[in-house]
Amino acid sequence: MPVIAYKCPSCGSGMVFDVETGTLSCHSCGRQDNIEHISDPLTQHVFAEEDEAQEYHCTSCGAVIMTDAKTSATSCSFCGSAVVLGDRLTGKLAPVKIIPFSVSKEQAMKAFRKWCRRGTLTPRGFMSANRIKGITGMYVPFWLYDLHNEVEVHGSGTKVSIYRSGEYEYTKTDYFQIYRKIGLNYTKVPIDAAEKMNDELMDKLEPFAYERLESFKTPYLAGYVAERYSYNDEELLPRAKDKIYEYINGYINSTTTAYSSVSYADVQIDTVIARADYVLLPVWVIHYDYKQSKYTFAMNGQTGKVVGKPPISKAKVAAWFAGVSAISFLAMQLLTFWMIGGTTW
User: CA–CA separation, 97 vs 212, rounded Å?
Assistant: First the structure.
């Protein structure tokens, strides 16, 4: 099976992508190579697509590398060499674009600990103890959709006006039929395509700076784990439609603000894919243990944004509510004192 590993031309050690310099770097001798000047083996070979677990051999130590069918980059568990599984990245499985990591592992660990300390309602031990079980830099597969939407709306609206005549005040209500025909385009709508990734976490990691998308080259994967998509663009289209629905609904409402009230009898939305690009986006996945429970957090590998649900301290929540209640009680007492005309303290 084809395994791609990048060996340092100077000392023979394994090379990995370095976020600080944006180069393929050797940690042994310090050599740094511009990725744009490195020929990509995937442009020179055509591999068969496989859909089952395969056996690969590490090019450094010869050990067997077993992976599931969705992994396209990993490391050898025996010698630690970074390897890219070439047959998982060609043909229909080849990403179009990639956003390289901008946050290093050390920066990710530091930022995560800082984020934990900000949790005002998390248990004290969770914030202070070093309970990180593992942190993995992973390129997660996403589909970026350009979606064209034809929207047709039927409904009714009212306009209410109030006027006076003499001593009387009158309210007038006019009724209108509403019809809207709207064309809306949304570009680069991201939907994660890896079955093993939590969709809610991935959605909360947004936004990514898509202007920094680079043409895909395998050296960017060296030293990281990469997954290939589990679902194609047609299979994930319903999720993309759901994601843009609130924006479409908001736009429809923005066209009817002249009315006092609006009700929609029928809203038809016809969505088609104008373009769908398979891309890899950088994510740090952090596994954390606390009191025999496991927690998973994710960090945007480009911006450093952290998402996840930490444990909540019942004692801190109770103290918080007690404090709020005390402040509310004091405010009511002051308001009552002022209303009955009390003197200033």
Answer: 10
Domain final residue, candidates 38, 66, 94: 94
What are the tokens at 172? 């007038």
For 290-304, write each residue's pLDDT tens digit.
676 777 889 999 999
Q: Using omega within 30 degrees of 0 as the cis cutoff, is the peptide bond preceding 282 cis? A: no
How many domains does one find in the chain?
3
Output 87-91 pairs: Cβ under 8 A, ≥24 positions apart.
87/1, 87/2, 87/47, 87/48, 87/49, 87/50, 87/54, 88/50, 88/228, 89/42, 89/216, 89/218, 89/228, 90/42, 90/45, 90/46, 90/47, 90/49, 91/46, 91/47, 91/49
Predicted confidence at residue 1, as pLDDT, reads 45
On whether residue 99 sits in a domain, the answer given is no
Domain interval for residue 39:
3-94
Distance CA 138, CA 88 (A): 15
Mark whether 228 and 338 lie in a shared domain.
no
The pLDDT of residue 98: 94
Residues 6+ apart with CB under 8 A from 167: none
